[in-house]
Amino acid sequence: NAGVTQTPKFQVLKTGQSMTLQCAQDMNHEYMSWYRQDPGMGLRLIHYSVGAGITDQGEVPNGYNVSRSTTEDFPLRLLSAAPSQTSVYFCASRILGGHNEQYFGPGTRLTVT
Amino acid sequence: GENVEQHPSTLSVQEGDSAVIKCTYSDSASNYFPWYKQELGKGPQLIIDIRSNVGEKKDQRIAVTLNKTAKHFSLHITETQPEDSAVYFCAASRRAGNMLTFGGGTRLMVKP
């Protein structure tokens, strides 16, 4: 199993540009989520999904959109990038129900100038 | 919502010494407390977790303790090794909840 994969690894955007961060998992996990990591602030949940066709907002959803058309994929869209979205983004997945280990991807480092 | 505070933000120890990282949480309904280790350039990885029905859990050189009354939990690493150097995150979650709330992280440096 490849686990959780993310692309790209690095990205530089200009203010106002749009892009999609890709996330895929091959563990057949129902639950997938996106976090952003900023210095001193830990990981903050952006959006999550409990299955195909179902998404919900996390702690910091503004400026981000998600969709879940398949179990495997959970892309994160920035429609109009802002410097405040400069961060490292992590996708994670786990089995739904109870308290199960979350598996994180390697991250995408995004810089918005 | 839940708020998790983590201290210290950085910790430097000599190889072989013990390291302790502490977290407090605000939501008394939280009942699951995992700890993640993040090595440079990688995503976080679960190293140990504890549920609110136990007070302590050990796995070789690492242990976690939980005090539900005071709403705090701690990670203990004994006989530290250079490969323990990383950023450690605590987190908390409600019963059957879908969201983990993370602490701000602790950068642990183990000096050889």
Descriptive terms for the model:
heterodimer; A: 113 residues; mainly beta; seven-stranded mixed beta sheet; four-stranded antiparallel beta sheet; 11 strands; B: 112 residues; six-stranded mixed beta sheet; five-stranded antiparallel beta sheet; 0% helix; 58% strand; globular
- Number of extended strands of chain B: 11
Cα-atom radius of gyration of chain B: 13 Å
Overall structural class of chain B, as computed from helix and strand content, comes to: mainly beta
Largest interface between protein chains, with number of residues from each side: A-B, 25 and 26 residues
What summary fits the major beta sheet of chain B? Answer: 6 strands, mixed
Main sheet characteristics of chain A: 7 strands, mixed
Give the percentage of residues in beta strands of chain B: over 45%
Order of secondary-structure elements of chain A: EEEEEEEEEEE
Instruction: Assign a percent range to the helix content of chain B.
Output: under 10%
For the terminal residues of chain A, how far apart are their CA atoms?
36 Å
Structural class of chain A: mainly beta
Mean pLDDT across residues of chain A: 94
| Number of separate helices of chain B | 0
